[in-house]
Write a structure and sequence with these properties.
With about 475 residues, the chain is α/β, with parallel strands linked by helices. The protein folds into 3 domains: about 260 residues, Nitrogenase molybdenum iron protein domain (Rossmann fold, 3-Layer(aba) Sandwich), CATH 3.40.50.1980; about 140 residues, Nitrogenase molybdenum iron protein domain (Rossmann fold); about 30 residues, no CATH class. The chain is built from 18 helices and 17 strands. A 5-stranded parallel β-sheet has the order 9-8-7-10-11, sandwiched between helices. The protein has a 5-stranded parallel β-sheet with strand order 14-13-12-15-16, sandwiched between helices. Strand 7, helix 7 and strand 8 form a beta-alpha-beta unit. Helix 11 packs across helix 13 and helix 17 runs antiparallel to helix 18. It is globular.
Length: about 475
Amino acid sequence: MKDRSFGSSNQIFARFSRTPKKIPVPFYRASCGNESFLRPVETLTIFPVEDDGTMWKEVGIDAWIGARKTSLEDARMTVTEIIDRVRKEGDDALRELAKKYVELTDIAVSEEEREAAYDEVDVEVIEALVEAHARIERFHELQKPKNLWFQEMEPGIVLGMKTTALNRVGIYVPGGRAAYPSSALMCAVPALVAGVKEVCACSPPPIKPLTLVALDIAGVTEIYSAGGAQAVAAMALGTETIRPVQKIVGPGNIYVTLAKMMLREHAEIDFPAGPSEIGIIADSTADPRVVAADVMAQAEHDPNAACILITTDKTLPAKVGREITAQLASAPRREIIEQALKNSGYTIVHDIDEAIAASDIVAPEHLSIQVADPLTVVTRVQNAGAIFVGKYSAVACGDYAIGTNHCLPTAGFSKMYSGLDVQHFCKTASVELVSRDGLELIGDIVETIADAEGLHAHANSVRVRRQC
């Protein structure tokens, strides 16, 4: 891959032209008995959509969480068949499965295709991606652990940790309803900052120019035209064109998510992830217009996105509802937002203590804190994928350019998973340096416990050394 340096605005204008390309929305073939049919891309979490005439309503925490109906089992048969095909047929399976929406000849994206992609993207967007990349890289550089450190614990006993980057990882960049260059940056940057030598990316064909440009700016070494569960299977198992990886990261629909989970014996993954969501803790100081804007921003992601406002102010929900109605009137993605708002709502609590407790039960992907003393809340909250503090900390800043990572666990998984970071692409090994004096210091302890467990050779391995 060529080394690219981006100079002044005039230099960039001289290099790139602006002719956007429209890409069709992908479909996946699902099976039902002996019948096969096309269905649009789905997501990990499904919220039941009921046309009850309301969009902004009061909901209980338990009811809101209960609406997160996962449908992984519905896709298991389809994903199992896809994985089996890729295992047996390799590249041929990728080409055949791609025929659902495009005729695929070359799986690997060429250097010429990368170059051509720049001509399809507005120069202002390219400049924005370059600047976003720099900020994301700068923040993730701060996460880098020491390659090796030691600490003398006792005389003659020195312990340490050695951190090694994974050698080869795969990233999945969705290509469904829209292009997601931001996800390409978010997945690639921490891997490369960690020191991963080979980063390969898969995205549904035809790969959108925006995605190609973002992957190229990030420095991804290999790009492949492959989408859905088959792309995950290809990266995990390997094909004639795509060599297997150690870890697969990146968001995707229900088929992608399930394939990642089913192939963990071959390649580790980041975490399960579904449609976007936001939890907002707010009090009487919160600006209803800002709260409404945050709700709308998450709702436009997907019809199955979900938002919940947890507030101590009984008057705030009505104000937010009026603002949502006003902003919805001119929203370009109004239809999607209206569907997502049916999964959303508010709950009124007595005080901040109760609000924090409720938020931790929800464990939202994004948590916005809009209260008089936000830092106090930050120190006490335990479960959230990313936390946005104060009126001006829009979640959208984290989605694109502030530097933090937007690949985050959803559907309550932030109780046990962290968002994507440099550590995801590293592995560690403890290092032990013991001198003769150090061995004498712990020798009796080791021999006693080893003999108690009946592992006498373990005890003898220490005894022999002490006798030398």
